[in-house]
Amino acid sequence: MMPSATIIGLKTQYHFCIMARVKVIAIANQKGGVGKTTTAVNLSAALAMRGKRVLLIDVDSQANASQALGVEVDCEHSIYQALIGNKLMEELIRPANRRNLSIIPAHMDLSGVEVELTQNGTHLTCMRDAMEGLRSSKYYDYVFLDTPPSLGVLMTSSLCACDEVLTPMQCEFLSLDGLSKILYVVEQIRDSGANPNLKHEGVLMTMYSNTNLANQVIAQVKENLPDQLYTTYIPRSVRVAEAPSFGKTVIEHDPYGTASMAYQNAAKEFMARHRKH
Ligand SMILES: Nc1ncnc2c1ncn2[C@@H]1O[C@H](COP(=O)(O)OP(=O)(O)OP(=O)(O)O)[C@@H](O)[C@H]1O
Ligand SMILES: [Mg+2]
What is the mean pLDDT of residues 195-214? Predict the structure, then answer.
């Protein structure tokens, strides 16, 4: 039986925007535990392996992306410092111990930033302003933002600062509702003028297993957002869950495993979708 919830009414949106040299992509879904951080880390690593210069910015006080790459985190080098205007983002960039890959880590101090930014009225602009130097330096091909599971200030400021949104999504019924919400937020941010060229770039299915339900959910996404669904699905694999405990990506931990191959295929697909970039 098909899931009764649909995402009918969601429009695929096409935008023309000036191609910037540095492409900033927020990995976003306000639902928790859907594979945002896993995607941010492994897609970044796979692109870096293919010769792209990648910066991963950890915008989540859980600091999972920083930990997954084995990068030590302290409050002096956290993205927090750039958001409150204490440091330039460029000063916070750290090598991620992999060729072509750098990171700006997060620290749990980020959990307090929402109140500070709301109070001083910079919550929509702080990330974009802090990123100006990075954009004009044109050093990186791609900057990924690993966003937290909420529609709070950190998510909003990320969406105001990025060019595109990539949504990892679990192949489950309630995820369709989550996808509708993120698409709505993207539309709102664009229409408000806060980021008029913001584009929802794609949907990447995660933790896939070949069940009727998973395939029905995917069919719904495909029907409503045919150009946005990545043809690569990331399979559920215990290797993915193990990898962070070794400070490794799944590509390093289990190079020929199904999830590793899937993230590498997703990176190829990402590059094909951005080939004009
Ligand atoms: N393909 C997969 N197979 C098995 N486990 C996975 C897979 N992808 C992610 N996981 C596991 O699921 C959990 C949630 O993943 P992850 O942290 O990437 O999600 P998230 O969306 O970033 O979560 P949060 O919303 O808390 O930031 C983690 O324990 C991770 O190891
Ligand atoms: Mg996460």
Answer: 97
